[in-house]
Amino acid sequence: MLIFVLGGVKCGKSMLSQCAAKYLHETKNKGKMYYVATMIPYDDEDRKRIDRHLLDRKGWGFDTIEEATFFPNIEEKITTDDVLLIDSMTAYVQNIMFGDDDIVNNIKMSDIGEHIRRLSEKAGDVVVVSDYVFSDAIEYETLTERYREWLGRVHIDIAKCADVVIECAYSNPKVIKCEKEFDLGPIFSHFRTLDHHLTYADI
User: Fold this and answer.
1) How is the chain split into domains, by residue range?
2) What is the pLDDT of residues 76-114, one digit of tens each?
3) pLDDT at residue 74 greater than cutoff 80
4) What homologous superfamily is domain 2-198 in, according to CATH?
5) How far is residue 149's CA from residue 134's CA, in Å, rounded to a whole number?
6) How many other CB atoms sit within 10 Å of the CB of residue 144?
7) Could you give the 3-state DSSP secondary structure of residue 125?
8) Residue 15 region, left (φ>0) first, then alpha (ψ -120 to 50), else beta?
9) Is 68 in a helix, a strand, or coil?
């Protein structure tokens, strides 16, 4: 099962994804539940965001894997009984794009979607989180537009191979795609009982 969750900043998408991963782990799998952290902190705001996510998943049973630039590194660590929560593709693409001295001009964005597909075949279930950054303004400078274009292509590749695609807006999940007979009700019900992810006004 591959679930792709999209949403704007502070919309509840990470908490919804945690609920999805937890449900999949409890009902379908006997292995481990991994949180794949992709963010590289550059300033205090980034560190606050990481601290918030650490607090939000405290006690949920996640083992953390930090992988900022190359998902294939994870494959040898997981089994078909495991659940992966990857948060987030936004940071992952950013890390790759700006990870070297300058912009990585020869990167193949198609590889990222393929890496996600391979992880979904290797693990029991995978939940992927990403930000929707395509309607904030009419036009950005060239580098930002290129980043948004690349992220959009990655989103399309993941959505194509995903079994379920969910958009989260103001903590309201909307199912965009569901190709398997899978009851999302318990995930949404659990998510709606949790509201502390909306109380971080300083982030």
Assistant:
1) 2-198
2) 999 999 999 999 999 999 888 877 654 444 456 778 999
3) yes
4) P-loop containing nucleotide triphosphate hydrolases (3.40.50.300)
5) 9
6) 12
7) strand
8) alpha
9) coil
